[in-house]
Amino acid sequence: MSEELILVERQGFIARVALNRPEKLNALTKSMWLRLGEAIAELSSDPDLRCLVIGSMGEKAFSPGNDIAEFETERANKTQAIAYGAIMEKTLTTLRNCPIPTVAEIRGICVGGGMEIAGCCDIRICGESSRFGAPIKNLGLVMAYGEIEALMSLVGADKAKEILFEGKIYSSNEALKMGLVTRTVPDNEVKQEVTKTVGRITEGAPLVARWHKKFLKRLTNPAPLSTDEWEEGFDCYDTEDFKIGRKAFLAKGKPEFRGK
Prior knowledge:
Layout: E1 6-11, E2 14-19, H1 30-44, E3 51-56, E4 61-63, H2 71-74, H3 78-96, E5 102-106, E6 109-111, H4 113-119, E7 123-127, E8 131-133, H5 145-166, E9 170-171, H6 172-178, E10 183-185, H7 190-203, H8 206-218, H9 227-232, H10 240-250
Parallel strand pairs: 2-3, 3-5, 4-6, 5-7, 6-8, 7-10
Antiparallel strand pairs: 1-2, 8-9
């Protein structure tokens, strides 16, 4: 397991996926992008999973983005780049479409593709020394449409222009103000804060979390809700978890939800 570039660990209702190339600051390779997408797809199909944490090994970097050394063999021309880009976009789309809550645990450098992976997570927690950006202009590269759309959904068009045109590296506080991250904490408290966050998520009714995520995404589509979509917002009343939650509330106890 220690030799794998993408580590997957399952503990009860929680799964953790980690980039595992610390000797290269977790710089991403084509095979890493492919395996990351496969792992997220596998976990997304698990009905019992309540939270997914995306992190990395080592303290210095979440990821600085794609390994430039690989460009000569895997992204040397347009044909190769299209194939590589398709893998990247599929992985990022799979992460964005994951039906369960996702939390990014960010320590150190989080740039380029690393920032894109973290940005596709629902909650993004970083250390104060973390740095963010997408200076691909310095490589003469363009961010693909799907990747730009994901960035715009976080920071808006104006900030996306700033990030891409200037290629600036941002502090954790700047990233917080822009919406690249949702929370910053002292470096030595990142893992603890993620653990607390995951605990709060998993204590809640898991079906509710999945519904909320689904509804939030649907509301980014300006099309009017259908009758079936509107009525789905009340399906929770027919769940076993609602009965459990109501009973526990009246008894001033802690509910033990079953995801049913």
